[in-house]
Request: fold
Amino acid sequence: MLIDIRDLYKIYNEGKESEVRALDGVTLQIDRGEFVAIVGQSGSGKSTMMNVLGCLDIPTYGEYRLDGTDIGSLTDKQLARIRNREIGFIFQGYNLIQELDALENVTLPLIYRGVSVFDREDMAMAALAKVGMDDRAHHRPSEMSGGQQQRVAIARAIATSPPIIMADEPTGALDSKTGKHVLEILRDLYRSGTTVLLITHDDGIAATAKRVVRLSDGKIISDNPQEVDWE
Reply:
């Protein structure tokens, strides 16, 4: 079992009148190599779920084991190491550093990973090539379209070959054609053995995944496999 959460809660302002249960007793297991969409409207808890699963936030109560490791027992430094080695993040807002070109943006996680200066550029260029952006390696974000920026963000996420990709509304700022291309990249990552978690409010986007977990008010209300037509 790659991801195993049991009776998980994330509570803000606990015990106060303004208490919010962003996650309310969630139990979920995800095997290595799955393509799972976590779906819900604004306020459903889906982004909180990604933050917890991605070790960006810690639950208030409950257990989370990632590949057998009890995440709740780790220090901030250990959590940062897991994020760098195990998980690639893709965000709706791209989160690229404007002062750096595409190659430099993609190189960043490799630097944090401790990859030698001799190997970084080759690995970063290989990641850019996978998303069709190697010809834009020396362009800054301001010189790229939204779709191009998102592809660079995906290259950054996959540069260290993490076993898990977590994508939070990765097509939300894109036109439908460009969004479809981004989803095709995620599909190809899944086909190559990567575990893909796709966070979205859009049922049409969720239709890309092999399994759909639906959240409402911090609770899982359905969890079903589905047939997809891209095989």
